[in-house]
Design brief:
By secondary structure, the protein is of the alpha+beta class. A hairpin with a 5-residue loop joins strand 2 and strand 3. The chain starts with 8 loop residues before the first strand and ends with a strand.
């Protein structure tokens, strides 16, 4: 992994960035497809979804010096939890530490808001998914240690076609 360098900045995304974030998500889908983590037609959050993430202050983007977004992270509040809804870095910018910077910035917001912790669902086989989140302190949770919203999220993902053998819930307590 390369250092993203001082030229990458993390800041809130604004409406004029939403279309670019959607394009990043679609491009990153192909990286997931190549790893076997997803199948089917590429999907991305809607512009309304991005507006919803942004309204709660939970949509951050990574920008180049000229203001071009190259990655983003989006979250939602689930009771006292920060749920990481999506994180994507454009394939040309991956493996430079940008995803880590984005996650650290969003997790910091959750800590500042005195939330219980953060949750997410991910693929447990692709090397850049569950293993990456584990380096940030997330742990795979099942059964009673898995918050209700996370169990529901996993069920919804299976209903829309994700492989249940590959999906895991993860949590990080603050």
């Amino acid at each position: 992994m390369e250092n993203p360098g001082p030229d990458i900045t993390i800041s809130p995304a604004r409406p004029e960035h939403f279309a670019a974030l959607r394009a990043i998500e679609l491009a990153a889908f192909e990286t997931l497809r190549e790893a076997g983590a997803v199948t089917g037609q590429a999907v991305a959050n809607s512009l309304k979804d991005f507006a919803d993430f942004s309204r709660d202050g939970l949509l951050l983007a990574a920008f180049t010096p000229d203001g071009t977004p190259v990655g983003f992270v989006a979250g939602v509040f689930e009771n006292r939890w920060l749920h990481i809804a999506e994180i994507d870095v454009h394939p040309h910018w991956q493996r430079r530490g940008i995803g880590r910077l984005l996650m650290q910035a969003l997790l910091s917001i959750g800590q500042q808001r005195s939330l219980a912790g953060a949750t997410l669902t991910t693929d447990n086989i692709a090397a850049f998914n569950a293993n990456f989140y584990a380096t940030l302190g997330f742990e795979i949770v099942e059964g009673e240690s898995c918050p209700l919203h996370l169990r529901s999220q996993k069920e919804e993902e299976v209903e829309i076609g994700f492989d249940p053998a590959r999906r895991v819930g993860m949590r990080l307590d603050f």
